[in-house]
Amino acid sequence: MWKIIRQIARTGIRTEPAPQEGDAVRVAAEHIQRELLDVLGQALAIRQVDAGSCNGCELEIHALNNPYYNIEGLGIRFVASPRHADMLLVTGPVSKNMEVALKRTYDATPDPKLVVAVGDCGCDGGIFGESYASCGSVSNVIPVDVNVPGCPPAPIEILYGILAAVRRTRDAAHAPDAQAPKSGSDGK
Amino acid sequence: MRITGLTLSLDTIPAPVPIARAVVDREGWRTAAQAIAAGGGRLVALWGADRSRSDGGELAICAAYAVTEGLVWLDLSVDADEPRYPDIAELHPCAGRMQRAAFDLVGLRADGAADTRPWLNHGTWPADRFPLRAGEFEAGAFAGRQVEDYPFVRVEGDGVHEIPVGPVHAGIIEPGHFRFSIVGEKVLRLEQRLGYKHKGIERRFTQLAPLDAHRLAGRVSGDSTVAYAWAYCMALESIARVEVPPRAAALRALMLERERVANHLGDLGALGNDAALAFGLAQFSRLREDWLRTSAQAFGHRMMMDCVAPGGVTVDPDPARVEQMRVQCDAIEREVLALRAVYDEHAGLEDRFMTTGRVTAQLARRLGLTGLAGRASGQTSDLRCDHPFAPYGELGVRRSTQEGGDVAARVAVRFDETIESLRLIRALCAGLSAVPDARVRCDVPVRAGYGAGWVEGWRGEIFVALELDGDSIRRCHCHEPSWQNWPVLEHAVIGNIVPDFPLINKSFNLSYSGQDL
Questions:
Q1: Same domain, B251 and B384
Q2: pTM value?
Q3: How many domains is chain B partitioned into structurally?
Q4: ipTM for the predicted complex
Q5: How close B167 comes to chain A (CA, Å)?
Q6: Which residues of chain A make contact with B302, given a CB cutoff of 8 A?
């Protein structure tokens, strides 16, 4: 036990407000938690769905949980069921064999819900494109709020995508006709 | 290279590892399978091809076997009117799923195979249409088709019930379906259904230029991007008969070892976490992040995607970065050794790791367990040691093997290989400055022919078979070692309790994307 305690003490706190980026990002990261509380009134629960990726995006989404990004400290956590989720974080391309499973996961997520497509393949099919076995982008199968391009996008870019989706709901809620626009072809 | 009891006329494929190709008839196909099984050889890959686009070409079934001297690629022509070939799954059990996939994709049926259920086709295309046949599916997909039910094997008896899991799993994991038949807490049987990520990679290859397709190979399984890109480039370079500059070979090996360490660090943390030691995940995921950031600084990409390219590598890190990588090995080694002491002495981990998910050496040999999981069950093969291709010859890679075959053994192999890879990286970094030739890339002329690449990735051997038809790809088959290891996982969990499944599964950490293609 003392070895564990010594290792923890020796390691110290490694969480960074914003890794490798300028001050603007640092400030942004500090606001994430407050924004989440303002917009949602609660922590953000995310259900990640791999709909056919090469697994590269999943590795970077995993990295969000490491002590440097400490995503749970920001009030964001990954949950095991779509029924507990506010947001689906979907990687692609969506394979034909996963199309039904993705639609069912979407239907099982309670409204209001957000969808963030992660990675070049999730955004537009990437190198795999559309074929007899691939539906291409996530937006070809379910409505998408925000696309995060990159192959794979770095963890901090995925975090920005998550935040952008949350901000959009806030902005839409403050707009005169309060309806969050949903479309598949939006940029980031 | 020779196979006992068999006369073959072998064409050597000029790759850095010994690979030869031979055309056989039905009798030779069967005899070779028997002779190789009897002589202790292993089936590495099995795939189908349609060569009718070329003059006089026809359908063919291919198998790659590893024997003592190297790898043998056997090629059997199959009649288009009666597309059948002799089953080899009786002799090499891991062939079963590969034969089912060869039917789904090319329409070649193994004569007398016990299991002929579809594998990659979940009903999303008609069972009598085959996506890798020439001219097939030109008009696009079949709209409105739904996935079909799959006839799982039912276990019956008092108190037996089923737990279906997936395809969407309760974590940040790739999709696949597991059907457990259990009594109380105990697993009687596990049956996997994979193929959910099938996205038509092999057909996509035929639409890409040979000099661009390494990017697709690098995305067959994202965690092994360096290994796949290297194996693809090795295949392409073997057709062109070019040898990459020594500096490029050293940089490829440097990246491959960095990929190995990155994955082992991630797995070691996740394994601690799955046995309720969150401390392990926090520590190892921190080390992994440090490691990936250094890769990004040195090679411009955290996972080094697209850094291995035909003819060499695309990035040559400057001496300061090379020194940074060398020094980082000392720091990471210190931390890994400290954490290993914690893991070794932790009673809770010992309780969960020891004897859990055991695969005996005998079962591993019979089922063809390969790669890291194989080495944890007494199977010694490691390409870097068996056929040391440049630059591994000078490095003298030390194999890491264990006899236990349980989760603890797979953890131990990961620790040992991490330490060994750190040693290799230090040696490679130190040696880079001594390479007089500054070139890191050479021209690769594209021409027709058969080529092959064989590389020891972090999970096991990655094999790529490539056929070029002039300036286009006629067939490219990428083989993932998970094809061999997934069926063994079904055996590893028998008699274990359901809550240990995630731990056992993680200790294998197999690829879904790589086998689904």
A1: yes
A2: 0.93
A3: 3
A4: 0.92
A5: 7
A6: 60, 154
Q: Is B272 found in the same domain as B184?
A: no
Judge whether B374 lies within some domain: yes
Residue-level pLDDT at A18: 47
Question: Which residue range is the domain that position B400 belongs to?
Answer: 247-288+319-430
Interface test with B, best of A97, A128, A138 (most B CBs within 10 A): A97
In this predicted model, what pLDDT tens digit does every residue of B376-410 receive, in sequence order? Answer: 999 999 999 999 988 998 899 999 999 999 999 99
Residues in CB range of A6: below 8 A, 6 or more apart: none
Residue A172 contacts B, CB cutoff 8 Å: no
User: B503 CB contacts (<8 Å, ≥6 apart)?
Assistant: B271, B274, B275, B352, B353, B356, B357, B407
CATH number for region A43-174: 3.40.50.12280
Residue B104: CATH number of its domain: 3.30.460.80
Whichever domain contains B327, its CATH number is: 1.10.645.10
Cβ(B195)–Cβ(B482) below 8 Å: no
Of B137, B168, B196, the CB nearest to A132: B137
Instruction: Looking at the complex, report in whole angstroms how far the Cα of residue A120 sits from the nearest Cα belonging to chain B.
Output: 12
Structure confidence by residue, pLDDT tens digits, A13-62: 877 764 344 445 455 556 666 666 676 667 889 999 999 999 999 999 99
Q: How far apart are the first and last CA of chain B?
A: 31
Asked if the model's pLDDT at residue B55 lies above 70, the reply is: no
From B260's Cα to the closest Cα of chain A, the distance in A is: 14
Q: Does residue B309 form part of some domain?
A: no
- A127-166 pLDDT tens trace: 999 999 999 999 999 999 999 999 999 998 998 899 888 8
Which of A66, A118, A151, A162 to mutate: most B Cβ within 10 Å? A66
In a domain, B484, yes or no: no
Q: Which residue of A has its CA nearest to B136?
A: A132
Compute the count of residue pairs across chains A and B with CB atoms less than 8 Å apart. 163
The verdict on whether omega for the bond into residue B310 sits within 30 degrees of 0, i.e. cis, is no
Contact A134, A52 (CB under 8 A): yes
Interface of B with A in 445-464 (CB under 8 A): none
For residue B167, whether the previous peptide bond is cis, meaning omega lies within 30 degrees of 0, is: yes
> Mean pLDDT score of chain B, rounded to an integer?
93
Q: pLDDT averaged over chain A?
A: 83
In a domain, B492, yes or no: no
